[in-house]
Automatic annotation (TrEMBL):
Assembly information from the UniProt record: Homodimer.
InterPro entries assigned to the protein according to its UniProt record, in alphabetical order: NagB/RpiA_transferase-like, Ribose5P_isomerase_typA_subgr, Ribose5P_isomerase_type_A
One GO CC annotation: cytosol
PANTHER family: RIBOSE-5-PHOSPHATE ISOMERASE
Pfam family, one: Rib_5-P_isom_A
Isomerase as UniProt keyword: yes
Name the record gives this protein: Ribose-5-phosphate isomerase A
Amino acid sequence: MNPKQLVGEEAAKYVKNGMVIGLGTGSTAFFAIQKIGELVKNGLQIKGVPTSKATEELAKSLNIPLLAIEDVKRIDVTIDGADEFDPQKNLIKGGGAALLREKIIASVTDFYVIIADAAKGSEVLGSFAVPVEITPFAKEITMAQLKALGCQPVLRVKDGQAVVTDNQNYIADCKFERIDEPAKLAAKMNAIPGVVENGIFAGMANVVISEDGNGGLLSL
Ligand SMILES: O=C[C@H](O)[C@H](O)[C@H](O)COP(=O)(O)O
């Protein structure tokens, strides 16, 4: 089985009848959502909370009932992917530009399940450039302030245009050599006025499930 499907289906085991489930974004979360769709088709009763417009469309196509965000108080379990993780389960997320909604949803989640290829694991975060959601207004000032934290910010561009997030913001990808104190760096980034949110998810994940390269499962 494709490793993403393996971990996606494993994560779906956390989903139980009656729960409110945060639905992550990306090519790994896709498989968990597919599996949840199958379970719903077979009678499982849950309500989903999507972390992006793309996931909302996917969930609707699978007939997964969704909760309006204004009605969400707590979420039992959220299943999402990650771009990098360390042994303490700190994460870098936002490779698909969904980090803001993902972090809001993670912040009200009781049990946060991360699914990712084992190759995304590192001893110290920093291999993946940290995606930072910034306001289009004064992006040059914000990127200079991010650079002062020790990275090389690059505005994310697709087809010659700045990538616009679901929240109408831009993404600056900030490559650091190594991130020894993820929570501190995240706080410093968020102290910059033009930063809406950063892609460091420190101390949020309860479990990280990956595939060992031989069809077996690993979990942190
Ligand atoms: O913005 C996107 C999300 O943070 C994704 O969860 C992350 O980029 C991992 O995506 P994938 O599973 O496609 O590698």
